[in-house]
Amino acid sequence: MQGSSHTAGISDTIAALSTPAGVGGVGVIRLSGPRAADILTQCFRPAGGGKLEDHPPRQMVYGRLLDREGQTIDRCLAFYTAGTASFTGEITGELHCHGSPMVLSLALETLFALGCRQAGPGEFTRRAFCSGKLDLAQSEAVADLLEAQSRESVRHAAGRLGGALSRRIEEIYQALTQLDAHFCAVLDYPDEDLDPFTASTLKTALEGQRQALGGLTDSWRRGRQISQGVPCALVGRPNGGKSSLFNALVGYDRAIVTPIPGTTRDTVEERLELGGVPLRLIDTAGLRQSQDPIEQLGVERSRAAMEGAGLVLVLADGGKPLEEEDRALLARAKKNAPALLVRTKADLEQAAWPVEADVTLSARTGQGLESLEAAVARCFPKGEQEGYGELLSNARQAEAAGRALGHVEQALKALEAGFAPDAVLSDVEQALEALGELTGRTVREDVTDCIFKRFCVGK
């Protein structure tokens, strides 16, 4: 539906601040719409004389920004871009001013007085989608890139923005389209029987797309880990070194550390990347029986964090014997997620243990932290064929891909059962419709509204 009904009502020119609010070195204001260049020409005077529109598109020009009374607001840079070459597919422009909140406020006030209106959340990217400059998967990648908090999430978001996921989807879509065309031809010529060879060929083709869709749907697990971070709970008995390791990994004293058992009463969470794996690291209260109602609440939250984790680090003081309670905790953790037994305080005298720890480390000296990184990386191996940006990144995409997969599986069953071609055709067409939702071919207006509300104003 790109470039069709979605474009209605966006012929006006919008403007917004595209850099964060507050004092900064530079503040950028973006414009998009049919009058963008004309409005900039009215309020911007090039230092060399003439008008902004006298300069070539995409050429940065130095000059004065004027208010409605013709008074100078700032000496800044400006440029405009023709619609065919712009991000939104419309005429666009930018002002690069000094990053004073008052300067930027006066600049926007001037633009609004000259006919611009305030852009809504994600409206620039939505216009790029509506004009066909980006598909929906690429549009969502813009928001993913803005929110990325690890190297892996940046790389995958940039890959999706470059069209890696869209190309993967398009290959499946085109293959199903060819099958759809074949079944339509069969229905148009009912006197022509579908011979066994053709039926076998079609089955092979459908099976190939079932496998392709299965791989696409399965990529959501890895995509979710990258975009949202793997919940990683640090659990163990009191004074096992959880908060010390937490602080060592995040790089500063985020959690309180004392020799007093039960100091940690609540979960503390930070994002980081360890062994190339984006983690949401969760420090938890020590697990033990307590009569203190506040500590009891902390213990309950610790158990909940462990149950919901995608990775559990079970920490135990290496200077003390490994208790049966520690081993039971490790066994319980392994039922829900990958779990590692971590022997802490390696810089102190060590006690004999009946089992070997997965990692031995000292949060105080840093000994063993590299071994921890390697162990975490082994828990989340990358797919051999995984390319940056080819993974599904959100639940909407996973649901649509799952529906497409379900319809292809139904088409296979119908073909194998010898159903009439129109029954197979119906499932193939529904698979195409579901797959089209990923890139925006068949997406509903309310879905796009929900997607672009996630964006910040100015993007």
Can you walk through the features of this model?
The protein is an alpha/beta fold and 459 residues long. Helices cover 45% and strands 17% of the residues. The protein has 14 helices and 13 strands. The chain has helices at residues 36-43, 101-113, 123-130, 136-147, 151-161, 164-188, 196-228, 242-250, 293-307, 324-334, 369-379, 395-416, 421-439, 445-453, and strands spanning 14-17, 24-32, 44-46, 61-66, 72-81, 92-99, 117-118, 230-235, 268-274, 277-283, 311-317, 339-344, 359-360. It has a seven-stranded mixed sheet. A six-stranded mixed sheet has the order 9-10-8-11-12-13, sandwiched between helices. Strand 4 (61-66) and strand 5 form a beta hairpin. Helix 6 (164-188) packs antiparallel against helix 13 (421-439). The radius of gyration is 29 Å and the shape is flat.
Alpha-carbon Rg, integer: 29 Å
Residues in β-strands, percent: 15-25%
Overall mean confidence score, pLDDT: 85
Number of strand elements: 13
**Estimated structural class:** alpha/beta
N→C terminal distance:
21 Å
Largest sheet: 7 strands, mixed
SSE run: EEHEEEEHEHHHHHEHEEHEHEEHHHH
Shape: flat
Low-confidence stretches: 1-10, 260-265
| Adjacency order of strands in the biggest sheet | 3-4-5-6-2-1-7
Number of helix segments? 14
Kindly state the percentage of residues in helix.
40-55%
Outline the secondary-structure elements:
Blueprint: E1 14-17, E2 24-32, H1 36-43, E3 44-46, E4 61-66, E5 72-81, E6 92-99, H2 101-113, E7 117-118, H3 123-130, H4 136-147, H5 151-161, H6 164-188, H7 196-228, E8 230-235, H8 242-250, E9 268-274, E10 277-283, H9 293-307, E11 311-317, H10 324-334, E12 339-344, E13 359-360, H11 369-379, H12 395-416, H13 421-439, H14 445-453
Parallel strand pairs: 1-7, 8-10, 8-11, 11-12, 12-13
Antiparallel strand pairs: 1-2, 2-6, 3-4, 4-5, 5-6, 9-10
Helix pairs in contact: 4-5, 6-7, 6-13, 7-12, 12-13
